[in-house]
Write a structure and sequence with these properties.
- The protein is of the alpha+beta class and 263 residues long.
- It folds into two domains: 73 residues; 135 residues, Muramoyl-pentapeptide Carboxypeptidase, domain 2 (2-Layer Sandwich).
- The chain is built from eight helices and six strands.
- Strands 3-4-6-5 form a four-stranded antiparallel beta sheet. A two-stranded antiparallel sheet has the order 1-2.
- Strand 1 and strand 2 form a beta hairpin.
- Helix 3 crosses helix 4.
- The longest helix has 71 residues.
- The chain is elongated, with a radius of gyration of 38 Å.
- It starts with a helix and ends with a helix.
Length: 263
């Protein structure tokens, strides 16, 4: 083979080698581009997923915040609601439909909403340990029972010589119209002492005024709040509102209407 042929062969071999190398470089470049596109796609998917999670958290927070605002501005009249059953407001301005809760029976034929029973029992146990002898002498009443109590109170004032209208007006200062009585919720109790002595009753009431909030109960119609509650002072009438609300009302000196912003 002559020199020119050998030189041509070398050039052809070099060209083939260069072509193969160039082709390999092109293949590697294509692979790098695919890897970059794959990485970019993965990053885009991750960013989209993060955005979805953020949006879900944001809107859930909005829903929770809206619920909290709704609860702080006004309590639903539905006592069935698990979120507000302790704070249901029942009075002349907020009547309730006939309702019978799940009841736990007490002595002497009395009964309370089962959800407040354990705190009531704890409170009474501690009172007895303090040397007192508390007794529930009125608790849950049906609509018919509430009407009976009102009628009997009116009749007793009429027997004292008052006219029916005057007797009714006086009765409504201590007995609520059917549908506006807390006793129909099962969350209210009238308390006395087993011994029935006036000093014994007052000892029970005084202890409860001082300590009932520790068990989720409040004095519902305190002196000095008659213009807000519409009911004369009743040192025997206590209402279950739960530990958090009871503590807040005790510390602020509020009645239930004030606490709920309904004063």
């Amino acid at each position: 083979m002559g020199a020119q042929q050998r030189q041509l062969a070398r050039r052809q071999s070099y060209a083939r080698g260069y072509g193969r190398a160039n082709s390999q470089r092109q293949i590697e470049a294509a692979r790098r581009r695919r890897r970059k596109r794959s990485y970019a796609a993965k990053m885009l998917c991750a960013a989209a997923a993060a955005l979805v999670v953020f949006a879900c958290i944001f809107f859930v927070h909005l829903d929770v915040s809206a619920l909290e605002v709704q609860q702080s501005q006004g309590i639903s009249s539905s006592i069935e609601s698990e979120s507000d059953w302790r704070l249901v407001l029942v009075n002349d301005a907020h009547p309730m439909d006939p309702y019978k809760p799940d009841l736990t029976q007490l002595r002497y034929g009395e009964a309370v909403d089962s959800r407040c029973y354990l705190d009531l029992q704890r409170m009474f146990d501690d009172m007895r340990a303090a040397g007192l002898d508390p007794k529930v002498n009125s608790s849950y009443r049906s609509r018919q029972q509430q009407q009976k109590v009102l009628d009997e109170t009116i009749a007793s004032y009429m027997a004292d010589g008052l006219s029916r209208s005057s007797a009714r007006e006086k009765a409504l200062k201590t007995v609520a119209e059917p549908g506006t009585s807390e006793h129909e919720t099962g969350l209210a109790i009238d308390v006395t002492s087993e011994s029935q002595g006036s000093d014994d009753k007052e000892d029970v009431w005084n202890w409860m005024v001082e300590h009932s909030w520790e068990y989720g109960w409040i004095l519902r119609y305190p002196a000095g709040k008659e213009h807000i509650t519409g009911i004369d002072n009743e040192p025997w009438h206590f209402r279950y509102v739960g530990a958090e609300a009871a503590r807040a009302m005790h510390e602020r000196g509020q009645c239930l209407e004030e606490y709920l912003g309904q004063a």
